[in-house]
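Handout, section 4.2: multi-component inputs.
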Amino acid sequence: MSKQRIAFIGAGIMGAPMAVNLLKAGFRLNIFSRTKSKAQAVIEAGGVWVESPAAAAADADVVITCVTDTPDVEAVLLGAGGVIESARQGMICIDMSTISPQVTKQISSSLAAKGTVLIDAPISGGQVGAIEAKLSIMAGGPAEALKKVRPILEAMGKSITHCGRVGSGQMTKLVNQVMVIHTIMSISEGLAFAEAAGLDLETTLAATSAGAAGSHSLTNLAPKIIAGDFKPAFMVDLQLKDLKLVMDCARQIKQPLPGTALAEQLMSSLQAVGRGKDGTQALVEVIRHLGQNR
Amino acid sequence: MSKQRIAFIGAGIMGAPMAVNLLKAGFRLNIFSRTKSKAQAVIEAGGVWVESPAAAAADADVVITCVTDTPDVEAVLLGAGGVIESARQGMICIDMSTISPQVTKQISSSLAAKGTVLIDAPISGGQVGAIEAKLSIMAGGPAEALKKVRPILEAMGKSITHCGRVGSGQMTKLVNQVMVIHTIMSISEGLAFAEAAGLDLETTLAATSAGAAGSHSLTNLAPKIIAGDFKPAFMVDLQLKDLKLVMDCARQIKQPLPGTALAEQLMSSLQAVGRGKDGTQALVEVIRHLGQNR
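Output:
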């Protein structure tokens, strides 16, 4: 059986290296992106440029979407010139964006009417994970369809978890984002407090990293804070987009999340002062600022 | 040079195994504890029971206190029958309790008047760390004095960090507790949200542990939550004691900590319903409860 032909939609900082990894793994691939210039690296790696999502999907077995937000996914899958126009029995769509779990279920129903299965498969691991094909992929959808596309996912990620039926991948990603924002709060309040108390931050990091305070954020983002490096591993704008999805969903399922809500509000203050493109570790600046008049 | 004689004050779930490890390492040791029965294991391991902190310190080179809160340390060091009555030039006190950094500095001054140096050396690592001599020790005080007692600390811990002058160990421990409480909030809101959404918790844990959401709490406490195990690795009562120290200190140095304050308030609801002896992972029950009427 020859390898599937893939339609890849979206060539952002995540999508472009993911598409390149698929080409490296020997898949044939059509590429569409709102901004053609962003797809340059994918085209150079052997991707075939097409003029619309519908055109991308026309001769493809599997469609992958990796765009920003819920309306973007709706537009490229169900809108005019969208994938739905080429959807047919046996085609599988994989949405790797982080979007609303509820809308994911609705999109799945629309595609199902054409015989096309949707797998939601949002990712974690950042740009480095995308480049190195080491993403964590949280997948929702029928096990049989997931089995068919697993080699495709394995060309982009190192851990692929089947979380349940369609929407479960998105839901798991939102849980992931809830947990992440607290660890960013953890290092932001911890380091701002240490600093205000006059402690040496390097020493504080050394004393706390190995124990109960340990987290991925403490290991990876705290050194950036200490170095004054606010370049994004993950952008404030995107974190806030994800936290809005979290809070919308939390309201819908009636599970209050007071800590997440507080963190979202504090982080939105970075966006308010024009720092939406900073890395999420800039949250420490908000906490510092609360004590600025001391 | 023969090994120092140690006066050990406090035989709680941390102190008792720490004193036993000192005896195993070949130190001679006097033991005093408010409740004699708690010191039984230390006496059996070769510790010499004495009737007061002053008596414990009379022939000791080094005094170690490992009691609960700030007033307890003040009482055993400076109160009637306290260590101060036997304090003299060259004696070193090591306070391994978690108490107020400010009061630590005051106690240090009182002891200094008798020529006795205080090192604050609070610990992290829990009962298991105490038993296995794998504690993380955050030490504040003069480098020279710390050098003299380092072999003693090494008999109880695996990581000893010199954080700065007296009080810095306590301050670093408070920073540690700020960071810890956020990671407990992280798993509490994350798992309550996942549960309310109908996700399988084991799968969610597998999908999130390896990535950016990772934390010591996710690895060590989340499986307990999933198993419904609320036995303490660290008790709610003690966490709240530490968080009160944090918030008192934060007010004093004028560094607002909104996330920590929220977490403290939510955790205090466990104490309010008589669950102060549960492990800190019981915070998930408070978050669940917020959504109980759904």
